[in-house]
Amino acid sequence: MSSRTTTDPLDLIDLASQLSESERAIAASVRGFGEQRVLPDIAEWYERGELPEARQLAKELGALGVLGMHLEGYGCAGASAVDYGLACLELEAIDSGLRSLVSVQGSLAMFAIWRFGSEEQKNEWLPRMAAGEAIGCFGLTEPDHGSDPAGMTTRARRDGSDWVLNGAKMWITNAPIADVAVVWANAGEADGGIRGFVVPTDTPGFSAPEIKHKLSLRASVTGEIVLSDVRLPDSAVLPEVRGLKGPLSCLSEARYGIVWGAMGAARSALESAVDYAKQRRQFDRPIAGFQLTQAKLADMALAVWTGTLLALHLGRRKDEVGLRPEQVSIGKLNNVSAAIEVCRTARTILGANGISLEYPVMRHANNLESVLTYEGTPEMHTLVIGQALTGESAFR
């Protein structure tokens, strides 16, 4: 570990000193990409409710090495969990939609194939996905089944040597532009219950209409997945997993990235509030000199520092021994909730300017409202923690 100190007023606890030189370099590289390539346009994309360059961005993110970066082999970087977390932090400091694109690609679609797929599936998809030449999505959530995936109504039935899928998935990031979808369906007890399928999106019967009129994650491509007699060969099944263990383990991977990403959004809001408070003058002085403003900034900074330290701790544990589900739940529940409060407080410091897209604060706050409930609502993570504390399940 480096003993370097920092003069950054937003890092009064010298958190950067807990990172290696290579970790700082990765963070700086991703931050530079985001600030130069995406930040100049992200407010306009958000206002228009689209991510018009998603496919080109995926290729550039692939060249940067962040797609599936924590996976090994098949064109993936084999980076550490901390490296991946730092990348998520810097991506979400630009916009949650950018981090979601990377997270769904790497931690959901690619991870599912990497962890549970056949060698044929891995070789067919992972190198192209790591390069951003193929985009993936992850079909689990349904219109009537979010927090209770065991109740899914999407069905897979055998027909000779084939499988036929019918059903629908909802709120699926990347779906309208995806080349491949990892779809989870109930195959019935005789065929293993919940099974995962690698579905090329050009398969007849597969469609992914885009969801419009979002007020959050607007700079992100979101859609449905509609499966109408989608016929697949037996080779499309993920062979190494049966049951909910498959999709839930993928969600744990993605939730880990959120633990870091939320702190990126919070840091961006804090930076904006500090800069604004120094420049904005009222009563003949900068508002940064008022006690109530300083109290707000101090509380925001505490939330960012403690949340990032929690993310770093979980990242180190993940690299050393792995993480238990309740540990991931602690991170997501704490950090997303804290980040929302940071953004809301920053908005009060910016006053009316806080609602303008000229500043990132309201955009981050709106995005985090989606991050709060996707990949596990606060209620679900609270109950995961409660069960770990008491040994009693309160889910049903």
TrEMBL record:
Keyword Hydrolase tagged: no
Domain Acyl-CoA dehydrogenase/oxidase C-terminal: 243-389
InterPro entries per UniProt: Acyl-CoA_Oxase/DH_mid-dom, Acyl-CoA_Oxase/DH_mid-dom_sf, AcylCo_DH-like_C, AcylCo_DH/oxidase_C, AcylCoA_DH/ox_N, AcylCoA_DH/ox_N_sf, AcylCoA_DH/oxidase_NM_dom_sf, Glutaryl-CoA_DH_mitochondrial
EC number(s) stated in the UniProt entry for this protein: 1.3.8.6
Swiss-Prot/TrEMBL cofactor(s): FAD
Domain Acyl-CoA dehydrogenase/oxidase N-terminal: 20-133
Domain Acyl-CoA oxidase/dehydrogenase middle: residue ranges: 137-230
GO biological process, one term: fatty acid beta-oxidation using acyl-CoA dehydrogenase
Domain of life (superkingdom): Bacteria
One Pfam family of this chain: Acyl-CoA_dh_1
Residues in coiled coil: none
Keywords: FAD, Flavoprotein, Oxidoreductase, Transit peptide
Family membership noted in the UniProt record: Belongs to the acyl-CoA dehydrogenase family.
Name this polypeptide is given: Glutaryl-CoA dehydrogenase
